[in-house]
Design brief:
In chain A, α5 crosses α9 and α8 crosses α9. In chain A, about 30% of the residues lie in helices and about 20% in strands. With about 400 residues, chain A is an alpha/beta fold. Chain B has one domain. The termini of chain B are far apart. Classes of the chains: A alpha/beta (about 400), B mainly beta (about 160). At the A-B interface, β5, α4 and β6 of A face β2, β6, β7 and β8 of B. β6 of chain A pairs antiparallel with β6 of chain B, so a sheet runs across the interface.
């Protein structure tokens, strides 16, 4: 991003509650989230002229959301995609603004991920094998967990990584969620809870898997010049990598090894190169936790530890609040709610503002106790640089580095 | 009508590659595409050669022998047709042909259900990385078949590695 570092910022964040019974349409969820982000930024309908969203044929289009809110758009795209879309769309929003297509872009994800379109496609599987399903589904592979699991099993084989080690990811995120009043699963859990939970797909236990929820989440991207006049301290964008791929001939990344090495391996030089910083400079990470091990594989791929040492890294205490580099301080997809990654970016913005919405009475004023015991604080002290590691699948991922 | 585990199997009329692949399996042959230009094999089906971008292909029969490279055991079935056979192991098999191409960590790796001699899901205690397997074919009807794998009666590559229960 020659010349674009620090030229764009996230200036607004908004979300609905995370539930399993929204009782509302994705249209209503999207409108509420976008409106909340506009109020957060201090922007009116006339101040927003771009909109981006991502979906899996399970959401409401931008013109409908914008129309409900009285917004006239100069630019919009509704892109097909799940996890890792947020960071990619932030880069596209910057490009759209940079070339003059629009000035301020809202990015949203609205989904009834529990009551309508569940993530694994549960309940939506067509009673027929055809087309692409002749390459994987017909062999018994039908969900995200099932298609990701062989990568983790191979990592266990190659490096001796254990279920107990990656269970620490759930333990850490549950600790963080216990200090997040909005988290769907606010209960703290132990390593034993994780490894004693029932099998979903070996090597994944139930508690290795994320929650499924109904929610809408939105963020607003604009230029640094406009950002300075808005309500909050901007979260400046230092670098972004969008949906970087591993080679996957025939749509099958397994033919290229090592299969336990994920797309972040290729995204890392792009995003760190733009930002001019390295892993050692990152203070808070938001590594996508569709499953406990996806967090680990990405932290490894981006160089927060050596290849093969992810199990040690995530079980060392580093990723917990109070540790050297906490991960998913909101509780992530494992505990807060499932947003296809946009919730992780919202949390980075909160941390950079010093406004993690925890149980500290004056969090909105940036006053925190830094006491991370249950129902306490979840703000990391003096955060300056955050990084998001977005995951779609082992061969596809995105990244975003921001500072305040 | 072709079906598998009680579910209809359809191949679109504009998808001759999948039809020919499944028809070969129906004849008891495991075939993969071979590039007529650079002669390299590819799997799964693709519309060009990923090594030289040629559009053409011919079918090459492979031995169907290989080594389990990774696997999983599905306990919580998602697809209604597979729920009755849980738990079942899905294996990623590295075929003996074209190992280490184009790089040392690359190869022709094929997904499949691991089944026993009766065609039932293999016991997970007998499933593991390094175990040798050979292809077999489920009859889908209508002249189509589906490759699956079963354990081969030959020594493993190194020690078989299993998820440590």
């Amino acid at each position: 991003m020659p010349g674009l570092r620090d030229q764009y910022a996230i200036v607004g964040i908004g979300a609905t509650e995370f539930s399993r019974d929204s009782g509302r349409t994705t249209r209503a969820l999207g409108v509420e989230a976008v409106r909340a982000a506009m109020l957060d930024a201090g922007l009116g309908a006339g101040d927003v002229d771009g909109m981006l969203s991502y979906h899996g044929n399970d959401s409401t289009s931008s013109p409908t959301i914008a129309g409900d809110l009285g917004i006239r758009l100069n630019f919009y795209m509704d892109c097909s995609g799940g996890g890792s879309s947020t960071e990619a769309l932030i880069g596209l929003a910057m490009g759209a603004i940079e070339v003059g297509m629009c000035q301020t872009v809202v990015i949203f994800r609205a989904m009834n991920g529990y009551t309508e379109a569940r993530i694994g496609g549960t309940g939506r599987q067509a009673p027929v094998f055809r087309g692409g399903s002749l390459d994987a589904a017909i062999h018994g592979m039908h969900s995200a967990g099932q298609s990701f699991a062989p990568s983790f099993m191979r990592h266990m084989y190659e490096y001796g990584t254990t279920s107990e080690q990656v269970a620490h990811v759930k333990v850490a995120h549950s600790k963080h969620a216990s200090n997040n009043p909005r988290a769907f699963y606010p209960q703290r859990v132990t390593v034993e809870d994780v490894v004693n939970s029932r099998w979903i797909t070996k090597p994944l236990h139930l508690l290795d898997c994320c929650v499924e929820t109904d929610n809408g989440v939105a963020i607003i991207v604009t230029s640094a010049d406009r950002a300075r006049d808005l309500r909050h301290k901007p979260a400046y964008i230092m670098g972004v990598a969008g949906r970087v791929n591993k080679e996957q001939p025939g749509g099958y990344h397994w033919t290229r090894g090592p299969i336990s090495r994920v797309a972040g391996h290729y995204a890392a030089p792009i995003v760190f190169g733009q930002a001019g910083v390295g892993p050692e400079d990152i203070e808070v990470t938001g590594s996508y936790d569709a499953f406990t091990f996806t967090t680990m594989l990405q932290l490894e791929a981006y160089g927060f530890c050596k290849e093969g040492e992810g199990g040690d890294y995530v079980s060392s205490g580093i990723i917990e609040l109070g540790g050297a580099r906490p991960n998913n301080t909101h509780g992530g997809h494992l505990c807060e709610g499932y947003t296809h990654g946009i919730g992780h970016v919202v949390e980075s913005v909160r941390q950079l503002r010093g406004q993690a919405d925890d149980y500290c009475p004056n969090w909105e004023q940036g006053e925190h106790t830094y006491d991370y015991s249950e129902h306490g604080c979840r703000q990391v002290r003096d955060v300056e640089i955050t990084m998001n590691l977005g995951w779609a699948s082992p061969p596809t991922g995105s990244a975003l580095i921001m500072h305040n | 009508m072709a079906e598998y585990l009680g579910v209809r199997v359809e191949v679109a009329s504009n998808d001759p590659e999948h039809r020919e692949f499944l028809e070969a399996a129906g004849r008891g042959q495991f075939v993969v595409q071979r590039c007529p230009e650079c002669q390299k094999l590819r799997y799964p089906i693709g519309s060009a050669c990923p090594f030289c971008q040629s559009l053409g292909y011919e079918w090459a029969e492979v031995s169907g022998r290989g080594t389990i490279y990774s696997y999983e055991v599905v306990h919580h079935g998602i697809h209604p047709s597979f729920r009755p056979i849980t738990p079942y192991p899905v294996v990623l098999v590295e075929l003996d042909e074209q190992r280490g191409v184009p790089g040392p960590a690359d190869g022709l790796r094929v997904l499949g259900l691991l089944v026993d001699a009766e065609g039932r899901p293999e016991d997970e205690e007998r499933t593991g990385i390094g175990a040798r397997v050979q292809v077999e074919f489920a009859d889908l009807g209508d002249g189509l078949g589906l490759p699956r794998f079963r354990l081969a009666d030959e020594p493993p590559e190194g020690e078989v590695w299993r998820y440590p229960d």
